Amino acid sequence: MERNLKNVLVISFGFLFLFTAYSGLQSLQSSLNAEEGLGVASLSVLYAALTLSSMFLPPIIIKKLGCKWTIVVSMCCYIAYSLGNFYASWYTLIPTSMILGLGGAPLWSAKCTYLTIAGTLYAEKAGKNAKDIISQYFGIFFLVFQTSGIWGNLISSLILSQSSNQGEISEDNLECCGAYDCLTDTTNSTGSERPSNSLIYTLVGVYTASGVLAVLLVMIFLDQIKSNQAETEKEKPSFWSTFLATFRHLKDKRQCLLIPLTMYSGFEQAFLTGDYSKSFVTCALGIQYVGYMMICFAGINSLCSLLFGKISQFMGRKFLFSLAAVLNTSCIITVLLWKPDPKQLAVFFVIPGLWGVSDAVWQTQTNGAENSKTWLIKRDVLPAYLIWAHVVKTSLYGILFEKNKEAAFANYRLWESVGFVIAFAYSTKLQVYIKTYIVLSVLVLSMVTYGAVEYLEAKSSPGTPAATKKENGGAHSQETHM
To answer: Is the pLDDT of residue 328 over 90?
Structure first.
């Protein structure tokens, strides 16, 4: 096997094993560690740490350790989070969440840097176009990696389905499920009951072993990569110039108008994984169904990400944004009006399925990446664009801010993560129907400000052909495809 391809596969399967564990644990936090809101609090801390990490740590750690050992050390941070779930408490889960958050940004940056350098070196050796090779490497990575959510959630559902606590839920207990929940962790004595310690230890043990396997795979089989450091330093802007450019970019009125839409991405994902999974699925069906629900969401999201990336050139982003807004609004209204009933099993999966369709639009059309990054990636990649922005094909952010892609993409990740932090932070303090109205309000505001951006674009370059907008430093037309 060609050496570079071997390295790409090692990284891909290393991330597959690592995120099989992480994605499964993340989906269960609001249900598994519901007492005093520990699970969602840990996720809020995690994303806050991830935001800070993305601003400061990646270039420093990669320069000190190199890509390979940065990946190894960062993977160990994820294993620490798995270990914290063996005995989940404020003294174990919050510190390990911070550790994972600090390690998340260097992990993804090192992976992106490694694949980019490997692709460039191979292209030079083979006399091929570097962007084509890099694109192929990222394609292989995402093809393998994005199945991790399926395996992680499948493992959790299969193991937790062995629980002896399962039983039929009474009508009285069902009254505390849904949008008008009772805001208590102990009301429902069946569906929401915590699994036995033996099952939790089995589940977390499997996840920890998967993480350890990822670390060993990278340590033993991944080659250390070398590049022309002097040349790299000349080409790369300084850290502080990039950092300051992120905030200087807020002077652009269009960027400020896109903040609600960007934050909405964090709000809607946090609502599905934190509130819907707990107050609807776990409460009415049982925690063993959370994994199946997330598999439904992830599978449809992945397929639609690929589909929308292709059809956007024919339909235009305005149509797709409108479609996503209508679907998300329909799901939110359904959540408000529907009373969960185990007899209506299909509805529990239709909502996350339609939510996955709309989420695919938000991701591919807002910051779309060439290889259709799905929810599995966007929930964990904060600093990646700073390193591989040249791999990203233009979508809304790329089109509007073509000359400032790095600052624009950094703003995207910054404000999306702020949405996550806020949504998880208030999750345990409010009833679900209030949180649902908040999500709906942010969606409405997002569509208004997005419409203002489209209006400004149309006003600034009326009748300008898409082919000439690039030359004038303006945006491409909305029909520009992924």
So the answer is: yes
Over pLDDT 90: what percentage of the chain? Answer: 37
Residue 383 CA, distance from chain mean position: 12
**Identity of residue 454:** E
Taking the C-alpha atoms of residue 294 and residue 356, their distance in angstroms, rounded to an integer, is 10
What is the pLDDT averaged over residues 353-378? 64
List phi, psi (to 5°) of 116: -65, -45
Euclidean distance between CA atoms 166 and 315, whole angstroms: 47
Q: In terms of DSSP H, where are the helices of 161-270?
A: 171-174, 197-221, 229-235, 239-248, 253-270
Written as one letter, the residue type at 444 is V
Average pLDDT over residues 284-306: 88
Residue that has been written with the tokens 């949008």 in this structure: 179
Q: Give the torsion sign (CA, 342, 347, 353, 354).
A: negative
Between helix 197-221 and helix 38-84 the angle, nearest 10°, is 60
3 state DSSP class of 119: helix
Please say whether the beta carbons of 277 and 270 come within 8 A: no
Cβ–Cβ under 8 Å, residues 17 and 213: yes
**CA quadruple 297, 299, 301, 307: dihedral sign:** negative
Instruction: Compute the distance between CA of residue 191 and CA of residue 395 in angstroms, rounded to an integer.
Output: 42
Q: Could you tell me which residue, 412 or 78, shows the higher pLDDT?
A: 78
CA dist., res. 392 & res. 413, Å (int): 14
pTM: 0.79
Average pLDDT over all residues of the chain: 80
CA distance 253 to 250: 7
- In tens, the pLDDT along 123-174 reads 888 888 887 888 788 878 888 887 888 899 999 999 988 875 555 666 777 8
